[in-house]
């Protein structure tokens, strides 16, 4: 099989909490892949504004970005071509549930992340993992969504039993546990698989011609749909079980190992 596209998760796949920028060797491998006509797609839970910049450096740009777990699709130049947003009722239900249980919550908008509950805890959480975050705003007035509706949400310090309860309260959303007691929340019809499918359909590329690389639950559907699903070595056991191939860790340039093996 000749693979024509590569879809890559960002956090835990291209970068880690300790390694906040894509390595020079991974950057060079991705640029070389593009020069050979292979399409490179980022498929990330990050919003569009947080999916490039310092993590990628200045030498490499992906051909497409599937952001906010498929709710935003951007081209190489950052133009948003497709989007899905929560409804007002979704926002109200998520916010009400989080306030009831006093959980830290942030919503993803086109300009920044707005923290609707426990702002200081969120600052500590993000800073410990990504360093200073200039696009994390205090949204405790709970009115940002009246300007435009969000693409996604992130809830931390939420036990799994509460995640299941929230899914019951708001059945139109999708929850994915990306870290212990931390959940990505998306509009129900948004995920990385559907977002990448939108891109592939416009390029005339089939899923059987795609290699996908990831490390967490929000990658699962994409990994299973791809012609070849590769998983980073230190991913949770349940995600490794979905893999056609287990590559090295981020610090071992696991993505380079996939490129060398399958392209």
What does this molecule look like?
The protein has helices at residues 24-35, 88-101, 119-130, 160-169, 192-203, 220-225, 237-240, 254-262; strands at residues 5-8, 39-43, 64-67, 72-75, 80-83, 105-108, 113-117, 136-138, 152-156, 173-179, 182-187, 210-214, 228-232, 245-247. With 263 residues, it is of the alpha/beta class. Strand 7 (113-117), helix 3 and strand 8 form a beta-alpha-beta unit. The chain has eight helices and 14 strands. The longest helix has 14 residues, at 88-101. The chain has an eight-stranded mixed beta sheet, with helices on both faces. Strands 8-7-6-9-11-10 form a six-stranded mixed beta sheet, with helices on both faces. The protein is globular, with a radius of gyration of 18 Å. It is 30% helix and 24% strand. It folds into two domains: 5-83 and 190-262, HAD superfamily/HAD-like (Rossmann fold), CATH 3.40.50.1000; 88-187, Hypothetical Protein, Haloacid Dehalogenase-like Hydrolase, Chain: A, domain 2.
